[in-house]
Design brief:
This is F420-dependent biliverdin reductase. InterPro entries: F420-binding_dom_put, F420H2_bilvrd_red/Heme_oxyg, Pyridox_Oxase_N, Split_barrel_FMN-bd. Residues 8-122 form the Pyridoxamine 5'-phosphate oxidase N-terminal domain. The chain has 130 residues and is of the alpha+beta class. The protein contains 3 helices and 7 strands. The chain has helices at residues 9-14, 55-62, 89-102; strands spanning 21-26, 32-37, 40-42, 45-51, 65-72, 75-86, 112-124. The radius of gyration is 14 Å and the shape is globular.
Amino acid sequence: MTSIDSLTDDGRRFASDSHLATLSTIGPDGAIHVVAVGYTVDEGVVRIITSDGTQKVRNVERDPRATVAQVSGPQWLSIAGDAVIERDPAAVAHAVALYAKRYRQPRVNPKRVVIRIAPDRVMGSAGLLA
């Protein structure tokens, strides 16, 4: 399996450009639950900021399998692994800073948490992976 470390310079650039992505998790009935998200990749970790109690948070707490997928024209990237929910204020602040650098400063949200994915499978279009 390909790891996040196998991203080429083009792959790292693609994963840092201001593209939205989808997050797929396993819903309570076993169906795939897919939502649009912004995400960041930093030091080999994927982070998604969201509100505590959302369906995606409940899904990760029940079943940690998660995949982030980004597509832009012919280029695509899929990053999968086990996720955890981080509620520590320092972890949330770090994820917010990364998000603000990639996208924009998010609104204030006292219920914010981080979905943190440890990638173990990475797939992508030609040129994005070594």
